[in-house]
Amino acid sequence: MTKRLLAALAVAALALPAAAYVLPVSSILSRLAARRAELSLASVEAQGTFQAEGPDAQKLAQAAGVELRGQQLTVPARFLMKVPGRCRLELAPLDVPEASRPYVAIRDSRVVGSRGLAELPAAVALVRSTCALLGPSLAGGGASAYASVLGRRGVSTAEVSIGRFDGRLAYVVGARSSKDAKPVAYVDKETFQPMRLVSAEGGVMLDVRLLGWGSPTGGDWFPRAVEVWKGEAVQLRFTTEKAAANPRLGDPLFP
């Protein structure tokens, strides 16, 4: 009897995400927008470390003007965001003047960069998807602003389900099942922090993951780490070492 009871409980636990109450997409996006807006962030600067693995590591090493050791590139970097819809990833190798740093920047849907960084889909995805999840919060439209941004990334705002990510329950906006192979956005079911955006960039599906909300380095302003995955392999990772709220960021940083 005990074994049967334990088996039944295990089955119930596995079925919990499917059986859990699912909010309408409009409510999910409204709470996501409110969660970000309550931080009163007009801009964010995150300083940290950028890592690349796989075929892009050599290209990024050449762009940054540093020597690749082994199969992984590690270089100082910073991520800049100015709400709404402007974000910039900037590699900052030692002894390279600020004006010569490789960068990729997003302003609305426009992508610009230097030294080939904007030609790498994984680098563009890191900036574009992070900006889509964090950047619309003061755009004045609440849920509609997020719906518009996610829609441009191919995410359907007519579908939603419950899934799991990083050990937590999440709303999966864009799919009736978390296993559907289509563009989706994950929003934490309890905290309504953005967690993940899977969308196409450069003709391939890339999975951008925002990890470690509430860490001592980024707090609720910026995640502890942003990772870009292709299939089962991580391509890029930005690890936050320090974040500042509402720094003065000039428009020329987002051409």
Question: Can you describe this structure in just a few lines?
Answer:
This protein has 255 residues and is α+β, with helices and mostly antiparallel strands. It has helices spanning 2-19, 25-37, 55-64, 121-134, 143-152, and strands at residues 43-53, 72-82, 86-91, 103-107, 110-113, 160-165, 168-173, 184-188, 194-201, 204-211, 225-230, 233-245.
Report what the structure shows.
With 255 residues, the protein is of the alpha+beta class. The chain has one domain: Clam (outer membrane lipoprotein receptor (LolB), chain A). The chain is 25% helix and 35% strand. A hairpin with a 5-residue loop joins strand 8 (184-188) and strand 9 (194-201). Helix 2 crosses helix 5 (143-152). It is globular, with a radius of gyration of 19 Å. The N and C termini lie far apart (68 Å). Residues 5-16 have low confidence and may be disordered.
